[in-house]
Amino acid sequence: MRIEDIVKEVLEYTPYVALAGIGSFTVRQVSASIDMESGELSAPRLVYSFVRERQFDDGALVQHLRRYRDTEESEAIAVVSKWVNDVKLRLDAGEKVRFTGIGQITREGYEVVYTADALPSDSVLRTPIYTIPRLQNRPRKNGREGNLRPWILVAGGMILLTVLGLGGYYYYVKTSRNIPSPGPTVEQRSIPPLPLDEDKAKTGETIDSTHAQQVALRVTPAVSNPTSTTKKTQSNQQETQRGTTQRYFVVIAGSFRNLERATKIKEAREEEGYQVRIITHKNMYRVIIGTFPTYADAIRLKTTYCTKMDDPNAAYVPKQAISVEN
């Protein structure tokens, strides 16, 4: 087993790996980018670097050997210490120490110099993602060459905004026309004229104005809209479905970029009697050994677990609650 080959494995789940008295390797993720001049698209990648000032022993290599190489703690400490001393001797002798998949380090005077490996050829898309040869570097009338690319981008943005505006207006008009009108709440009904006494009709007498009213208003209950009732039922079903996901304070026994490694830790903790699950949070696979409604309860399980594992960093509890499906 060569320690140089497992440093990259350790950097998959921790940002630093220290070599006591020499320095530390670190890793960061770089997002995809576009070179506006050449039109080349660079894929997302991990960038490794070496920090000479960070020379204390953080124990990352020892913990890795304990957990994933089935090595006793005392034996792991002895192996890492012997390997670090060997690296120092090789650097003092002027040799280059290479780390698989990361790069190499060498000593120049009193400084340790790090040289990263070259990027793979498939990390950069050499074919330009946009090419307008007839409009690029088109000569102006006065003889000078002008770059029309900014104007093309501005014109394209204006066209996009116009299309979005017209689409939004069309959607608004279409939906407003489909809204059903509410049913009538007040209904006018004509009442037949009241019968008049023949004697009063002959003498030309008129009835009282209150009896001459021909129109009455009858209040009727509003007609319920079946469409709105259906929408309310669907919204209630959606709220019931959303209710299955709640926020808890969790105890995390490991965070990995690789699902296979997270599954191994899950199976090991289940054999010890823990109820373990794996969730995806911030692009990492989190191995959860307990969920609690309060932060204090989660801290109690974390303390018990770390005491059992004889490692104060065996688990941790985020201060913010995390959404977990029931």
Structural class: alpha+beta
Largest sheet: 4 strands, antiparallel
* Helix and strand element order: HEEEEEHHEEEEEEHEHEHEHEEHE
The dominant shape is flat
| Strand percent estimate | 25-35%
Computed over alpha carbons, the radius of gyration is 38 Å
Q: Which percent bin holds the helix content?
A: 25-40%
Mean pLDDT: 76
What does this entry look like structurally?
This protein has helices spanning 3-10, 60-68, 73-92, 149-177, 198-202, 226-242, 259-271, 295-309; strands at residues 16-19, 23-30, 33-34, 41-42, 45-51, 97-99, 103-108, 111-116, 124-125, 138-139, 145-146, 186-190, 215-219, 245-256, 277-281, 284-292, 322-325. It contains eight helices and 17 strands. Helix 2 (60-68) crosses helix 3. The two termini are 42 Å apart. Among the domains are: 3-125, no CATH class; 244-325, Alpha-Beta Plaits (2-Layer Sandwich), CATH 3.30.70.1070. Strands 15-16-14-17 form a four-stranded antiparallel beta sheet. Strands 1-2-5 form a three-stranded antiparallel beta sheet, with no helix packed on it. Strands 3-4-9 form a three-stranded antiparallel beta sheet, with no helix packed on it. A hairpin with a 3-residue loop joins strand 1 and strand 2 (23-30). With 326 residues, it is α+β, with helices and mostly antiparallel strands. Helices cover 36% and strands 26% of the residues.
